[in-house]
Amino acid sequence: MRRFTTALPALLVLATCVTVLLLGRPIMNRIAASQTGARITLARQVIADDDILERIDRAKMAVADTVRDSVVHIEVRGEGRRRFARSNGSGWVFDEVGHVVTNAHVVRGGSRIQVEFADGRVRSAQLVGADPYTDIAVILIEDGTGVFPISRAIDEPVRQGQQAFAFGSPFGFKFSMTQGIVSGLGRVPGAAASFGASNFIQTDAAVNPGNSGGPLVNIRGELIGMNVAIANGRDTDGTSEEGDSAGISFAIPLATIETVVPQLIRSGEVARGYMGVSFPRGEERAEATVYEDGRIWTGIRVANVEDDGPSARAGLQANDLIIKLRDQHVADFGVLRSIVGGAAAGENLPVTVIRDGEIFELNVKLGQMPAAVLASQASDAIQLQLGMIFGRIGNEARVARVFTGFPADEAGFEEGQRIVSINGRAVNSIEDVLVGFNEGGLLAGDRVRVVVADEETGERQTLDVELSF
Fold first, then answer.
1. Do the beta carbons of residue 206 and residue 200 sit within 8 Å?
2. Which DSSP state fits 247?
3. Which end of the chain has the lower number of beta carbons within 10 A, N or C?
4. 237 and 190 in contact (C-beta within 8 Å)?
5. Distance, CA of 432 to CA of 399 (rounded, Å)
6. Residue 71 CB: number of other CB atoms within 10 A?
7. Treating both helix axes as pointing N-terminal to C-terminal, what angle do 430-439 and 379-386 enclose, rounded to 10 degrees?
């Protein structure tokens, strides 16, 4: 008998597979959709049952409501080297009289200042005083009625990791608010410190051009610092000029603000603290020693103590290792200098030192920083901003170098010129030059008059120089 093979079983299998493929996909899709729907329903139920995110939102909105009416947008106009120059920044209301605090670089060189409130009111303001070394300025609103001073976290230390909110006018978007955390404390960003400012709060709250002078607040809407500088991709050390935010920005701490602002309001000037000590140069400044409990301390070694100076009267000695000021660890000379210089003359400054393996707590009643010391600290800033390097031949102060395109070049300074006088005061040394520019208000934006003599002919020439607005 001949056997016949048939394709029927194979066809049945094929048909079954096709049917499953055709009908199974919609079924699987419906199953997946059902699972997704169930997951969404469950998530919505979790959100409905636990309002933690809603409470967080309400808290952030409350911070905005608390702070917004204390923030101002600042427009500044001036007639500097670029006529009718214009800049803008931010600020915040300090008291019910109408004093507003901002950055000194925001109002530098300005002849006309206007502030705008969140409700749309615009008021004129006058400069009360500016301190370029801490980059703090105070202006006074001409009509100070209806202002709302910001709350300040005076008795609460700032801690790494706490939330922070920055307010201001980034790129002209007025009264903006951004959120971040306190990333670090005691920072010394390179270029921003060229005016003497350091000991900054570092935050990752987005800060951009226009935020300068705006408040940095905590979760209760209390001021903990003032936005001042941004680190960007072109200058990872930080800059007091405006760059785009790269997740690192800096703020002046409240402790410095509380020292400087009342003095500016009272007299328009700052009597800066002075310890009367000197320190080793360079890398030798930061040293490490071991305390008896095995902890490694890093601090600043004291080289010399001025006879009968503030530190000598408090008991500080040469070779002491300063590890804390105001209970803040000090391992960087810039931070130490900033804390001391940011304190007021006459203030009692707690100082912790290690001496012969033992810890001592001292209280130094600060004296007033001499003009020559302050000017020497501003040496780099003055020469950098002018675009000019000072030199010395014997006891004569000379122009050693002038950089093209900088204010000194545009004012007519030339290499080799002897500096005769500054604002009518005779110059006999580089120290006199620094004091002259410093007391002449160069860093605050004032015009300074300098008499120079030609290197070869001795012919004298009067030059007026001011920083760019």
1. no
2. S
3. N
4. yes
5. 13
6. 28
7. 80
**Choice among 87, 131, 135, 249 that is catalytic:** 135
* H/E element, 254: helix 254-267
Please choose, from the candidates 135, 240, 248, 134, the residue with its C-alpha nearest in 3D space to the C-alpha of residue 192. Answer: 240
Q: Is 105 a catalytic residue?
A: yes
Query: What domains, with CATH codes, occur in the chain?
Result: 40-268 (2.40.10.120), 273-369 (2.30.42.10), 372-465 (2.30.42.10)
Contacts of 272 (CB under 8 A, 6+ apart): 133, 341, 342, 343, 344, 345, 368, 369, 374
174 contact partners, CB below 8 Å, separation of at least 6 = 73, 116, 118
- 336 in Cβ contact with 351 (< 8 Å): no
- Residue 143 buriedness (CB in 10 A; 0-12 / 13-18 / 19+): exposed
DSSP string, 163-213: EEEEEE-GGG-TTEEEEEEEEEEEE--TGGGGGT---EEEE-S---TT-TT
Give the distance between the most distant pair of CA atoms in the chain: 134
Q: Which of the following is catalytic: 212, 240, 249, 338?
A: 212
Q: Which of 70, 90, 105, 240 is catalytic?
A: 105
Residue written as tokens 């987005």?
A: 206
Q: What is the pLDDT along the chain (469 residues), one digit of tens a residue?
A: 455 456 666 666 666 666 656 666 677 777 778 888 888 888 888 877 777 888 899 999 999 999 999 999 999 987 655 545 678 899 999 999 999 999 988 988 778 999 999 999 999 999 999 888 888 999 999 987 889 999 999 888 899 999 999 999 998 889 999 999 999 888 876 544 445 566 889 999 988 888 999 999 999 999 999 998 665 444 434 334 445 556 788 999 998 999 899 999 998 888 888 899 988 776 555 666 666 566 777 888 898 898 989 999 999 999 899 999 988 888 777 788 888 887 888 889 999 998 888 888 999 999 988 877 777 777 777 888 889 999 888 778 899 899 998 999 999 999 988 999 999 889 888 888 888 888 888 887 788 999 999 888 889 999 999 886 5
212 catalytically annotated: yes
Q: What are phi and psi of 17, to 5 degrees?
A: -60, -45
CA distance 377 to 437: 13
Reading the block at residue 158, the tokens are 């700032």
Annotated catalytic residue 409: no
Residues linked to residue 344 through DSSP beta bridges, in sequence order: 272
